[in-house]
Amino acid sequence: MRLFHNKTLFALIVASLALILGSCKEERKPLSIHQFRSEVIEDNDASDLHQKSAEFLMQNLPQNSVSEGQMIQAYTDTIKKWHKDAKVLEEKLNELKGKYQAQYKPEFQTIWPDYFEEHIAAVINTRDKSQWGKQISEDVFLEYVLPHRLGREPAEYWIDSALNMNLDSIWLKEDVKSASEYIIDELSKRKKKFIIRFGESNPNLPDLPFSNLELLSVGSCKELTDYTTYALRGYGIPVANDFTPNYSNINSGHNWNAIVTGKDSSIPFIIPVKDTLGYFKSSHYQLSKVYRKTYSYQPQSHAAFHAALNKSQQRMADFLTNPYLIDVTDQYVPTVDIELSIQYPDANVKDLAYLFVFNNVNWVPLAWGKVGNASVSFTKVGYKAAYLPVSGDGIPFGQPIIFDDEHQPKILNPDYENLTTLKILRKYPLFPRIQGYINRMIGGEFKGANQPDFSDAELLFKVESSPGEYFNEITIKQKKAYKYIGYFGPDGSFANIAEFEIYDRQGNQLTGKVIGTEGDHEEFPERTKEKAFDGDVLTFYMSPREDSCWVGLEFQQPETISKIRFMARSDFNTIVPGDVYEVFFWDRQWYSLGKQTAQSHELSYTDVPSNALYFIHNHSGGKEERIFTYENGNPVWW
């Protein structure tokens, strides 16, 4: 089979033939999978790499299916129509959630062999053109450069679009890393305003072709990752889609990219953050399992083993049903191989079993292992986590485990003989990121003035140390009346402040016109000056730039101030007086230790079984809650 490499000429020829043949034109007859494979592979003119590429793609063709029908059409049409207005697009995409049933068709029934011929030729042409192409091993090239699709999205000719980003100077780059950095920088600029949604606000988009991903202005990290993969592979960069189904210490999963530098090595990154090679997540997010999407079928995957056992997949998470995954956890975090005994014979543990992590509400699967004689073997387990061992029927076959200093499993069997007292100050760990937001107020100044430009300002109070997580109350000694009161954030702080209250000499809280730095933050326009005075401790002001910004009130007439109360930007996951809490411990299920109405910023539970896993729930509100153990008088969060 000879392929037309000049698309314009090819289009003219096709158009001419259509005019000549008219209604007499005979439609191409569908090919069997055998005929399809033969037409692509049996090409005597192809180079050796061309032949290997064709064989690689055709080897996996029989299992591949693509989206078709009303659902995928509705999503692609909606994105094309509304992509210029992210807010409207988000509304339209949310309207499509659950509206249509997904439909799939074998891929070889939706395209012709010509498609693969052209795709392979284009990919190899890019490889030969680049200075880094020959540096990539053949195995890496086939798995992480060559593939024409990433999931179940309809196939399309996308490489020309990827190469049409005006990045011609990339061909001067000498290696994969420098070329990657160049493209990542450009992609980050293009997706700078992309709105990331997750959890309940995630529009849950189907797999989308590159043409849609280019236009998309709102979605999840998966869509950003897919877009990046297409774009980089278009330039011959070996890039993978990596993900964790759930971090082990928060209620969230994540998708990101990795430049594949070898069989067992890679460099992770995300967009739209500039210069992110090696950076892909917040430092406090704990990884315990990472999977990598492949094009080729993985006979060692969970799905392959599960299929061989003819088991129902009703209980399994989506990622466990995907046979195109490999486990790359050891490329990210230290891991261990462990073997857990089956503590409860009634758990009906057969063939395969699982390690679950807690997602703030439920236990969810993260890893799988093979069942042996009265035990289960798990490989590449990240040891900075608390796991619950669970059978294929969803029943725990042992108590939760954590790991000791030697990275050996430690079973959390509640000790009813040695009781302890829990003293709890928070319902969720204070992560360094949140502490950093709190510390942004250090160096901030509260000032009073009678001139609107604060040219006559007088310092009322300066924040000399971390203001902590609660309200700070400052007595104002000055007896002078001021028409304007403002908070001036230190450089680098975006003038972050969650709540700002001002009181007169009679103890009345003052109101007035909200004033401050003109404009709103480009990426977070909802974090306006008014948020500092809205009475909601979970909202906050964020100025349009890092430095030299302020927020305050203008009164109708000068007022003498008695005190100022303020709170720093925080997650407000502290124990709040008046809120109702309940603490539980795990022993094959959650058992309540009772409800308490907090009288202070500390909860105390006495006569509690030690060596257990605990969980705290706030019945009065909030979503962020975690499991913990209790060691040396302090909670250890998992």
Task: Write a structural description.
The protein is an alpha+beta fold and 638 residues long. The chain has 4 domains: 287 residues, no CATH class; 110 residues, no CATH class; 77 residues, Immunoglobulin-like (Sandwich); 136 residues, Jelly Rolls. It contains 13 helices and 30 strands. Helix 2 runs parallel beside helix 6 and helix 4 runs antiparallel to helix 5. The chain starts with 6 loop residues before the first helix and ends with a strand.
Strand content: 25-35%
Q: Give a short account of the largest sheet.
A: 7 strands, antiparallel
- Shape type: globular
Domains, number = 4
Q: Unreliable stretches, pLDDT < 50, 5 or more residues?
A: 1-26
Specify the helix fraction band: 10-25%
Mean pLDDT: 90
Cα(first) to Cα(last) distance is 59 Å
Radius of gyration: 30 Å
How many distinct helices? 13
Number of strands: 30
Secondary structure elements and their pairing?
Blueprint (H helix, E strand, L loop, with lengths): L6 H15 L11 H9 L6 H12 L5 E4 L1 H13 L3 H11 L6 E4 L6 H17 L8 H7 L14 H5 L12 H15 L4 E2 L13 H6 L2 E2 L1 H14 L4 E6 L9 E9 L2 E5 L21 E3 L8 H7 L16 E3 L7 E7 L10 E7 L4 E9 L3 E8 L5 E4 L9 E3 L5 E3 L3 E10 L7 H8 L5 E5 L8 E5 L9 E4 L5 E8 L10 E6 L8 E4 L33 E18 L12 E7 L3 E8 L5 E8 L3 E5 L8 E5 L2 E4 L1
What keywords describe this structure?
Immunoglobulin-like, 13 helices, 30 strands, 28% strand
What's a concise summary of this model?
This protein folds into four domains: 7-293, no CATH class; 302-411, no CATH class; 418-430 and 574-637, Immunoglobulin-like, CATH 2.60.40; 432-567, Jelly Rolls (Sandwich), CATH 2.60.120. Helices cover 22% and strands 28% of the residues.
